[in-house]
Design a protein that fits this description.
With 359 residues, this protein is α+β, with helices and mostly antiparallel strands. The protein contains 10 helices and 17 strands.
């Protein structure tokens, strides 16, 4: 199963921040046949370790560790109240865009999984002042289509609500789904794992599917501390060009490869090595400048323990935090190819030098 095939499976699995268990299980199942060791930490991060294959062998203590991280959680909602008639009031988990709420198809994860719709007032019953404004989340509700007594049997306050949107296709290799942010990057890690197993590795690589990124980079913080890697690359999505999104917002293009980030969050020698690997192996790529906080797992990993030199690759994505997050599957494969090329080229002496050289 390559990266895009795993992606189709992953986006279909619900996994709101704090409830990523089913996604983690699928990732672990995919990685166990490929890694030397797979584990899960107390927060739910999945860690797949691919050991170094140096010739001649060197003591394990002398082998640096590269951490590759992408998050498994998706944005969603939570039930806050059951109202008369069986309607469910909601709160956001991780930044739902309320412009997409009306008529949204959802799944309510109670004692049973219930399909539902986000209801709203018909335009005939709204005022001119409210008719053209986004629906406030505290006015939205889910209609599961059941009698109130049955809803109260099956649903409790605190149950998660997720968007019901499997992967769909446009032209070429362009695909859309909910949770492309950031399951597409997990799929890119999987692609890198497939490609790296057949190459010589002078360092060991920890593939980490992190949790709770959307609510504060929590899985990256704990896994970065626990693994104490010598260097790390986070993989996430970035804003792709579409009407209204320009280069001023850092827009890049679908189908032109991964985006290599440069800025305060990223070690300049890692940036250079990523660009060199892309050039050597003929991997299409793009560049962006992130002046300060990247808002990705790299932001938390960089300051773990005594500090970790970090890089970031982004997958161009349209319509972020919507039910139809859209990307090019070729970019998933090329991102995996660049991660594998970078890891295969990294030598222990170069990695050790990262902590001493900033220029």
């Amino acid at each position: 199963m390559d990266g895009p095939a795993l992606l189709e499976r992953l986006v279909a699995i619900p996994g709101v921040s704090g409830a990523e268990g089913a996604v983690a299980a699928a990732v672990r199942q995919a990685w166990e046949p490929l890694c030397d060791h797979v584990s899960m930490d107390a927060l739910g991060n999945v860690v797949g370790l691919l050991r170094a294959d140096p010739h001649p062998p060197v003591p394990a203590a002398e082998v640096p560790t590269l951490m590759l991280a992408a998050h498994t959680d998706e944005i969603g909602m939570v039930v806050t109240k059951i109202e008369p008639g069986g309607f469910l009031r909601l709160a956001s988990v991780g930044g739902i865009d309320r412009r997409y709420l009306p008529a949204l198809e959802v799944l309510v994860h109670g004692r049973e999984i219930l399909p539902g719709l986000v209801g709203t007032l018909p335009p005939h019953l709204t005022t001119p002042e409210t008719r053209n404004k986004p629906l406030p989340l505290d006015e939205a509700y889910v209609d599961p289509g059941l009698r109130e007594a049955r809803v109260r049997e099956l649903v409790s306050v605190g149950d998660r609500v997720t968007v019901d949107r499997p992967l769909g296709r446009l032209m070429g290799e362009v695909a859309f789904a909910k949770a492309m942010d950031d399951r597409a990057s997990v799929a890119a890690l999987h692609e890198a794992l497939l490609r790296l197993r057949g190459r010589r590795r002078a360092i060991q690589v920890a593939f980490v599917a992190t949790v709770q990124e959307e609510v504060g980079l929590r899985g990256a913080a704990t896994s970065g501390y626990g693994l104490a890697p010598d260097l790390a690359i986070a993989v996430d999505v970035g804003h792709a060009r579409s009407p209204g999104v320009s280069e001023a917002e850092g827009a890049t293009d679908l189908g032109k490869g991964p985006v290599v980030a440069q800025g305060a969050n990223f070690h300049p020698l890692i940036v250079r090595a990523l660009l060199d690997a892309a050039k050597v192996e003929g991997i299409p790529h793009q560049r962006e400048y992130v002046p300060a906080a990247s808002g990705t797992d790299a932001w938390a990993i960089q300051v773990a323990r005594a500090g970790v030199p970090c890089g970031l690759l982004s997958l161009p994505l349209r319509y972020m935090h919507s039910p139809v997050e859209t990307l090019d599957l070729a970019d998933v494969r090329e991102t995996g190819r660049l991660l594998a090329a970078f890891a295969a080229a990294a030598e222990p002496a170069w990695v050790r030098g990262l902590s001493r050289v900033l220029k």
